[in-house]
Specification:
- The chain is of the alpha/beta class.
- It has a single domain, classed as Glycosidases (TIM Barrel).
- Helix content is 26%, strand content 18%.
- It has twelve helices and 13 strands.
- The protein has helices spanning 16-23, 49-52, 60-75, 116-125, 152-167, 208-225, 283-289, 306-312, 335-347, 357-362, 376-379, 443-451, and strands at residues 40-46, 81-87, 129-135, 171-175, 229-233, 260-267, 318-325, 349-351, 354-355, 383-390, 392-402, 409-420, 456-457.
- An eight-stranded parallel beta barrel has the order 1-2-3-4-5-6-7-10, surrounded by six helices. It has a two-stranded antiparallel sheet with strand order 8-9. The protein has a two-stranded antiparallel ribbon with strand order 11-12.
- A hairpin with a 2-residue loop joins β8 (349-351) and β9.
- α3 crosses α4 (116-125).
Length: 462
């Protein structure tokens, strides 16, 4: 998981009117599998590591269920989607090399981890729908070469799809997400030199065309074997290191293979803004309609308008498959400053045009606590599902450092940076103690207020 570098600067404010005139007033049309005619599903991606990797443990389903119920109770509303990541197959990350290339079955995992069956049962107990990410951590070529009986990827996919069908309730399958990035083994290239540029020798051989073929192969099996499954094609927001080019279309498998389009989109203050910076409330909308490499001095999008291309022209429902905000990685700031800034980036509201990511992503015209100038229901009617990535993790992440005269841009790497996206009671802002003057709502209370509207849906509609 590694989102693109994205500008937080308020220089984009003036683009709002052109976006608004383009998007407002276009009705949402219910057309794809499990797509709600009106409203938007809410979802959670919790940290299951301690539960999922607890080998041969008893009561795994109950432990999953308790964690889901806890988050629902904390936020005051049941969530329609619950996300889980599954290695399909396992890669070379672990000391036990015998796991390399081993596929999980529906009811067991070769590493002894929790099974997909146990997870899905827990989700169902809480009235939710599983959103399963299948990650081909090794031998991605199996998914596009000799796709037939005898191929271990083919056999595993058929078996998994048939098991999904027996579940009989809706499931979302997200296969090989963020393929347009440079950090997963199924990507077209891996940024081994950590310079955000594709250098000679960094190609994996998994070209966009081969990715398309792989997704089509997997989709065909699920569509044939499991009518209760909706296939989600999910790139990352933007594509680092490739200049002003279309970072999406070359990977798109085709309308008949992707029931939904997804997008993973985070806000982390990639320009390393000062601690007293304010976040433009229209940044989320802008990110869905402009690529990171667009020229800020022109009104048009030089690369691609994701929302227009895939949601309006193709009439596909959009799932924000992962989203979150944080500044906890900013070790260039004092501990208190980065915690306060993380609160601001998530939950602050300075005025009707400048506010944190929670309001940007979940703010609607139905919200009556204060004015929101960029409501998603009016501007993004095809946004039909949002999954908050409620986890904290350590990873290597780049940011841009711009000189004071704006003449130079330096890439700064935060090695093993701490990224805390959580809004629950375990997060860095468990109370509003980091909010200025102690008068603003804590993150989870704000989230609860935002999703309280009937616009946000707690149950997937078959």
């Amino acid at each position: 998981m590694m989102p693109k570098i994205i500008r937080y600067s308020l220089i984009y404010k003036w683009l709002y009117l052109s976006i608004a005139f383009t998007l407002i007033g276009r009705p949402a049309i219910c057309g794809e599998k499990f797509e709600p005619k009106e409203g938007c599903y809410i979802g959670m991606a919790l940290d299951w590591a301690d539960i999922a990797t607890e080998k041969n443990s008893k009561n795994i389903t109950q432990k999953f269920s308790d964690a889901i119920a806890k988050f629902n109770n904390e936020t005051g509303k049941a969530h329609a989607l619950v996300k889980q990541f599954i290695y399909f197959p396992h890669g070379a990350q672990w000391e036990n090399k015998s796991l390399l290339g081993k596929f999980p079955a529906w009811n067991n995992d070769p590493a002894g981890w929790a099974s997909c069956e146990e997870f899905c049962k827990a989700v169902d107990i809480n009235g939710g729908t599983p959103a399963i990410v299948l990650e081909p951590q090794a031998y991605f070529e199996y998914f596009y070469n000799e796709w037939q009986k005898g191929n271990p990827a083919y056999e595993a996919t058929v078996n998994f799809a048939e098991a999904c069908a027996k579940f009989k309730k809706p499931i979302f399958i997200i296969f090989a997400h963020e393929m347009n990035g440079s950090w997963y083994p199924w990507s077209a290239w891996i940024d081994r030199n950590s310079n955000l540029t594709q250098d000679k020798g960094e190609e994996t051989g998994h070209t966009p065309e081969k990715y398309q073929e792989a997704f089509r192969n997997v989709s065909n099996i699920f569509h044939k074997k499991a009518p209760n499954v909706a296939m989600v094609w999910c790139p990352n927001q933007g594509w680092l290191g490739k200049g002003r080019v279309d970072p999406y279309t070359q990977f798109y498998p085709g309308d008949e293979y992707a029931d939904w389009v997804g997008l993973d989109f985070y806000e982390r203050g990639w320009d390393m803004p000062p601690r007293d910076a304010k976040l433009w409330g229209g940044l989320f909308i802008h990110g869905l309609t402009h690529d990171s490499m667009d020229n800020p001095d022109t009104e048009e999008s030089e690369s691609v308008n994701f929302y227009k291309t895939f949601c309006e022209e193709k009439n596909k429902p959009l799932m924000l498959s992962e989203t979150g905000a944080t500044c906890t990685y900013r070790t260039d700031l004092t501990e208190r400053d980065r915690k306060e800034m993380s609160y601001n980036w998530k939950a602050q509201r300075w005025n009707s045009k400048e506010y944190g990511w929670l309001i940007s992503v979940y703010g609607t015209s139905y919200f009556d606590k204060f004015q929101i100038d960029y409501p998603i229901d009016k501007m993004l009617p095809k946004l039909k599902a949002i999954i908050w990535f409620n986890q904290a993790k350590s990873e290597d992440i780049p940011a841009k450092k711009i000189s004071e005269d704006k003449s130079k841009i330096e890439i700064v790497w935060f090695k093993k940076g701490w990224f805390d996206y959580r809004i629950g009671w375990d997060s860095v802002s468990e109370t509003n103690k980091y909010a200025p003057d102690n008068k603003y709502p804590d993150e989870i209370s704000l989230y609860s207020l935002l999703i309280g509207s009937d616009y946000f849906i707690s149950k997937v509609r078959p």
